[in-house]
């Protein structure tokens, strides 16, 4: 530990090589106090360096001088609380690296970052991301008396990187806050080099408007004359409107670069508009006099509000495109139809043919092509008086057979005369006789076939008998209720002795055999056990099941409920179409 004794001649010899930066102009040495808990080696090096540069180390805190401390330590905090007082403004607290910083700078660094005896608080913004730069910046602030550890809210000076977007945001945020400044990180170095604090100056930005006491450009008679002539040229008649609109005067100001409209630059378009608006009664008289002199026509080219009419675009007749399928639907063309004697007419080779599509009055498509000559090729036919109408002739036609839905399904193609797969042909002829076809395939009943006169083909249309209106049984089967009497009677008539035996065999308790028996008993069969073809109804049900790929039991069940063969066919046809649509 060095004492307050002045250095000897031998001690001051090496200091001649260094400038006495710790001495004032009168040769008085600057006093230093070193924090006691610093390492002894550091204290010895500091004492030697201070002595070489003309300073003096004191054993007690001097009234004026520097106190070298370890920043952030408890001893430094204690020294500040004890010895940092406003009545000793020349007593400074600096880090122990201050001596080396002064040697590098070649002069004693001034304590410029002090205000009212207190260190100025700095905040180093995170926009300065380089840690080495942040450390060097904090040390430079401490060497000049500032405090670099303040928060952004408490700091007086915020240091940030000017090359980032956040810098402009900070400037706009705090430019209205007094005693708060946003500076670049280079600002500290500039202040140290200049030896003082120089904040970035504020410049005046014109907020607009006329300054107090400044006179505005007054309107003169020449300005009003120009304004009236402009309005008279653009809107000669006030009844059309538009004299107080904005666009009229904006167009006037847009002509300011024209040599003939230099006078426009004297005022803004708002001023020109307000001049007319506030003096319209007087200026309208002047405008009317100018209009009476020039006599412009209403809607003349150049007047305000009149623009060139748009060119009329030619209308395009767009034809409605039809689907190719619709063009060919129901259309008969040349070459389609019967060829030979039954062809429609004998036409010459160059006869113009016109295909006709659509349907006739009965809703059916035309069977052949209706060929007509083109309208321009029709020869002129003179109009002749019609002969007197002849009395109507009513031919003797056979009576029309009443439509019977219960028997219409019997109109199926005739079976071959020798039966199916060698089955007895008499049974086949009997079936064909019901359809009105003989064994030769032509219409009409066979000569040797006798139809039972007691066969009532309209039995299905007859009303139910009184026995069927039994109050104990419903007319139809509801849910799991027993079937009505007419169903039981029909089952008794249709079932033979073999069906009774089969039904008896199916009453066993074997579940597997009962399922098979129910299928055999209820399913229609194409042939009876004796080789005779089954009933036409059963054959039709089998055909529907095969055609639309359903089981005969399903078709039989639906037919038993409805009794309509065509309805049954349409039902399963629609079901198959629906399944194809859903599952492909």
TrEMBL record:
It comes from Heliocybe sulcata. InterPro entries: Homeodomain-like_sf, TE2IP/Rap1, TERF2IP_Myb. Involved in the regulation of telomere length, clustering and has a specific role in telomere position effect (TPE). Residues 453-464 have a biased composition (Low complexity). This is DNA-binding protein RAP1. It holds the Pfam family Myb_Rap1. One of its GO terms (cellular component) is shelterin complex. Belongs to the RAP1 family. Residues 219-279 form the TERF2-interacting telomeric protein 1 Myb domain. One of its GO terms (biological process) is protection from non-homologous end joining at telomere. Its main location: nucleus. CDD domains: rap1_myb-like. Homodimer. Residues 435-531 are annotated as: Disordered. Signal peptide: none annotated. SUPFAM superfamilies: Homeodomain-like. Keywords: Chromosome, Nucleus, Telomere. It comes from the Eukaryota. It is found in: Nucleus; Chromosome, Telomere. GO terms for molecular function: telomeric DNA binding.
């Amino acid at each position: 530990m060095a004492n307050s004794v002045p250095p000897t001649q031998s001690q001051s010899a090496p200091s001649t090589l260094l400038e006495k930066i710790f001495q004032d102009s009168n040769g008085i040495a600057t006093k230093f106090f070193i924090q006691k808990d610093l390492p002894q080696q550091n204290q010895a090096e500091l004492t030697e360096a201070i002595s070489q540069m003309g300073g003096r180390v004191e054993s007690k805190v001097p009234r004026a001088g520097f106190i070298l401390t370890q920043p952030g330590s408890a001893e430094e905090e204690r020294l500040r609380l004890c010895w940092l007082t406003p009545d000793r403004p020349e007593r400074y607290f600096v880090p122990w690296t201050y001596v080396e910083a002064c040697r590098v700078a070649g002069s004693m660094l001034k304590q410029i970052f002090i205000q009212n005896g207190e260190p100025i608080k700095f905040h180093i913004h995170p926009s300065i991301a380089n840690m080495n730069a942040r450390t060097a910046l904090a040390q430079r602030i401490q060497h000049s008396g500032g405090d670099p550890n303040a928060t952004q809210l408490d700091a007086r000076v915020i240091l940030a990187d000017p090359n980032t977007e956040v810098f402009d945001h900070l400037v706009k945020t705090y430019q209205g806050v007094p005693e708060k400044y946003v500076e670049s990180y280079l600002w500290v170095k500039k202040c140290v080099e200049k030896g003082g604090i120089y904040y970035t100056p504020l410049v005046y930005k014109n907020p607009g408007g006329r300054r107090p006491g400044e006179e505005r450009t007054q309107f003169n008679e020449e300005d009003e004359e120009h304004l009236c002539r402009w309005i008279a040229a653009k809107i000669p008649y006030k009844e059309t409107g538009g004299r107080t609109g904005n666009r009229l005067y904006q167009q006037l100001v847009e002509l300011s670069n024209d040599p003939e409209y230099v006078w426009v630059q004297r005022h803004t378009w708002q001023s020109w508009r307000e001049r007319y608006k506030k003096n319209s009664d007087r200026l309208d008289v002047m405008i009317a006099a100018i209009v009476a002199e020039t006599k412009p026509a209403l809607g003349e080219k150049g007047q305000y509000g009149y623009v060139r009419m748009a060119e009329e675009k030619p209308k395009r007749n767009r034809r409605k495109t039809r689907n190719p399928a619709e063009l060919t639907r129901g259309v008969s063309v040349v070459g389609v139809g019967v060829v030979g004697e039954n062809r429609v007419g004998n036409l010459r080779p160059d006869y113009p043919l016109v295909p006709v599509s659509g349907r006739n009055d009965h809703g059916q498509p035309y069977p052949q092509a209706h060929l007509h000559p083109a309208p321009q090729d029709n020869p002129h036919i003179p109009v002749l008086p019609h002969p007197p109408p002849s009395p109507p002739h009513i031919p003797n036609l056979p009576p029309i057979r009443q439509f019977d839905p219960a028997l219409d399904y019997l109109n199926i193609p005739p079976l071959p005369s020798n039966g199916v797969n060698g089955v007895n042909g008499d049974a086949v002829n009997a079936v064909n006789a019901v359809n009105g076809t003989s064994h030769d395939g032509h219409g009409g009943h066979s000569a040797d076939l006798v139809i039972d006169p007691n066969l009532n083909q309209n039995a299905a249309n007859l009303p139910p008998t009184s026995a069927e209106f039994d109050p104990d049984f419903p007319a139809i089967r509801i849910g799991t209720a027993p079937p009505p009497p007419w169903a039981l009677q029909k089952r008794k008539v249709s079932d033979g002795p073999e069906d009774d035996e089969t039904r008896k065999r199916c009453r066993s308790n074997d579940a597997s055999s009962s399922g098979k028996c129910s299928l055999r008993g209820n399913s229609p069969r194409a042939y009876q056990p004796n080789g005779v073809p089954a009933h036409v109804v059963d054959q039709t049900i089998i055909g529907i099941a095969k055609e639309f790929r359903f089981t005969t039991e399903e078709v039989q069940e639906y037919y038993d409920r409805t009794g309509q063969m065509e309805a049954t066919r349409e039902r399963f046809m629609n079901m198959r179409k629906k399944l194809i649509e859903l599952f492909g």
